[in-house]
Write a structure and sequence with these properties.
Layout: H1 5-11, E1 19-27, E2 30-38, H2 43-55, H3 59-67, E3 68-69, H4 79-83, H5 95-108
Antiparallel strand pairs: 1-2, 2-3
Helix pairs in contact: 2-3
Amino acid sequence: MNLTLDNLKEMGAFTGAPVEKEITWKQGKKELTATVYVRRLSYRTAVSDIQAMKNNSDAVAGRIAASICDEKGKPIFTPEDITGDADPDRGPLDGNLTMALLSAIGEVNELGKAKS
């Protein structure tokens, strides 16, 4: 097989549209639910991971920012939004929400699941 864009497309080698997921997390005593869109791990994620290593910055925040997007695939966070550096008065993203987002990213990418 020759490596062509058409062949790669046929094999599903591109991430395509983001995947819609419903997440639930606790904020204090309240349980909250939201719809999020998750981009499959892709070139963007790889670049974000490499930049985090190069800049000695937060790889987890970069992974969330590269993966969580709107329904059209546009990122909704920067890594600084996640860490709280974008707005110190607002602070970092809630820990329970962070874990819910990471879980959704893992589910969409089938991370940690052995394939038979």
